[in-house]
Amino acid sequence: MCGIIGVTGTDGALDVIFEGLRRLEYRGYDSAGVALVDGATLWRRRAADGTHSVDDLVQTAGAAPGGATTGIGHTRWATHGGPTPENAHPHLDCTGQLALVHNGIIENHAELRVPLEGRGHVFRSQTDTEVLVHLVEEELAAGAGLAEALRRALGAVRGAFSVVVVSANEPDVVAAGRRSVPLLAAVGEGTGLVASDISALVGRAERYFALEDDQVAEVRPGSLRVVDLAGGPVEPTAVVVDPAWDVEAAQKAGFDDFMTKEIHEQPRAVADTLLDRRGPDGALVIDELRVPVDDLRAVDKVVVVACGSSYHAGMVAKYAIERWARLPAEVEIASELRYRDPVLHERTLVVGVSQSGETLDTLEALREARRSGAPTVIVSNVVHATMAREADGVLYTRAGPEVSVASTKCHLAQIVALDLLALVLAQWRGTMGPAAVGAELDRLQRLPALVEDALGRAKDVDAVADALAGARDYFFLGRHVGFPVALEGALKLKEISYLRAEGYPAGELKHGPLALVEPGVVVVAVLEPLQDKMRSNIAEAVARGATVVVVAPDGADVAGLGDHVLRVPRVDDPILAPVVTVVPLQLLAYALARRLGNDVDRPRNLAKTVTVE
Ligand code: AGP
């Protein structure tokens, strides 16, 4: 997803912008651009079409104005208009004095464009964004200052945006506004910055702030002024930057790529998410959960909403919520929930799950739930994320920054966080006594060591990956909690290897997909739980000549079960097994993708944080 940085009062502004863009690269992008205020003019460079990386842009930037202290930069993930230099941001107005970058989608861009063209504005791109720069241009021509002009222009706009502008006529100002798309500001001694996320800002300032929806910021060297869309002054929301979220944390720490680094950080992510969850009496406590206990006791249904890997974590949670809290639990793809008529009310607990806390589909599903009066809780990895600010309650995964587009450590952390939520519901509803809750917490505490053990078996996975070279079709099968593990294994493989991979509940194979199973097809089967039933389903695949890989717990009898066996440590409670059984599937996807020479951190067509529908 697009990344934005704006700076003012900064010597070597271009270098700071380039460094910020590099730190934002993980969000995914297909073109990039920068603009600097150079005295009374603007200097701009953009790159796309094969010369799209920030490093390419650095190479092609050429001689930049030496003394510039104000500028903006952008990495673009194309939505409206292809990834061409003309569509890359920043966009300029008709005077060439104003430059603008944008993340999000302007829904009414077509209707805004017609009258603008009628008034003589010349459009040079196919983007939805360009209307913004011409709208601001008109407000400037009417006499407004830069931030005021942006505020007025945004009043005409429908959609989701974070937008940043600079003008050659106000060389010490960066103006920025947002709605539904994250934007942070930072102020230091004589400097001011804005960016799409904290990674681009850490270490550059002393004070950090999150802009809220429909706020406009005027950033000057050393100062920040924020107003709402009506022009009324507002106190910006201060953000406490976790010391762990520094530049160092965003480096690869000796690993070849972020994905393998993050896979190996999983024991820590799981352990940290479980940290400090017991009160003095041994009861489970989730400090940040904010929703009153009585409200949670009154809940009669839980609906989990999420996308992708977060959705799979939610599917695992369904089994825990139903078993432990004895509550009906539904798991919904976030982009589907908001467009039907979901039956949600004040006794429905709606739980959003999101690594980024910014995924627009999940954010809007949660907003829909709040409008229905349902209490909302978000499981988020990012403390200052929009969902974390808007939901009634929060449960933080403590996985640290996840850079690789393919989610790994956050997925595991989400599963254990949701297990904690299921347990706390069980505790308050009285469906589990203190001893049973305590015993389950003990089992959860043993997971980091088991994940470490599973990671120690990566060589077995490498050997299987070597044996599978050339295969292009994969089925991942599982039952019960093994089913979401199968879905996650298939998603990981698809994302980074670009191989065809489908996840299925194993019992469903014979109802259709078995027709596709033949020699050359690989079936990856997660044996736990319901081992006996899984054995029958595996036999169905073996009989059709598939190459079968079985993920089996230590001690399980695997005689005659398949061509390859990936052993995992046994987990005491099968409900918790996904935290361990998904590990070899992550490693397998990684190993196969590396053998194909793919960029595992930045798979094609995908973005880390998806802030469009
Ligand atoms: C996971 O590997 C994917 N990149 C993707 O499915 C992701 O889980 C999904 O986009 C949801 O993101 P979120 O957790 O940040 O909301």
Write the layout of secondary structure elements.
Elements: E1 3-8, H1 13-24, E2 31-38, E3 41-47, H2 54-61, E4 71-76, E5 91-92, E6 98-106, H3 109-118, H4 130-141, H5 146-154, E7 159-167, E8 170-179, E9 184-188, E10 191-195, E11 207-210, E12 215-220, E13 223-228, E14 237-239, H6 258-264, H7 266-274, H8 293-297, E15 301-306, H9 308-325, E16 329-333, H10 334-337, E17 348-354, H11 360-371, E18 376-380, H12 386-390, E19 393-396, H13 409-429, H14 434-445, H15 447-455, H16 458-467, E20 473-478, H17 482-497, E21 500-505, E22 521-526, H18 531-543, E23 547-553, E24 564-568, H19 578-595
Parallel strand pairs: 15-16, 15-17, 17-18, 18-19, 20-21, 20-22, 22-23, 23-24
Antiparallel strand pairs: 1-4, 1-10, 2-3, 2-4, 5-6, 6-7, 7-8, 8-12, 9-10, 9-11, 11-14, 12-13
For the biggest β-sheet, the strand order reads 3-2-4-1-10-9-11-14
CATH architecture of the largest domain: 4-Layer Sandwich
For the biggest sheet, the summary is:
8 strands, antiparallel
Proportion of beta-strand residues = 15-25%
- Spans with pLDDT under 50 lasting ≥5 residues? none
**How many domains in all?**
3
Q: Over all CA atoms, what is the radius of gyration?
A: 25 Å
CATH homology-level superfamily of the largest domain: Aminohydrolase, N-terminal nucleophile (Ntn) domain
Shape: globular
Structural class: alpha/beta
Q: Number of helical runs?
A: 19
CATH class of the largest domain: Alpha Beta
Instruction: List the ions, cofactors and other small molecules found in this model.
Output: 2-deoxy-2-amino glucitol-6-phosphate
Mean pLDDT: 92
CATH topology of the largest domain: Glutamine Phosphoribosylpyrophosphate, subunit 1, domain 1
Gap from first CA to last CA: 12 Å
Tell me roughly what share of residues is in helical segments: 25-40%
How many strands in all?
Answer: 24
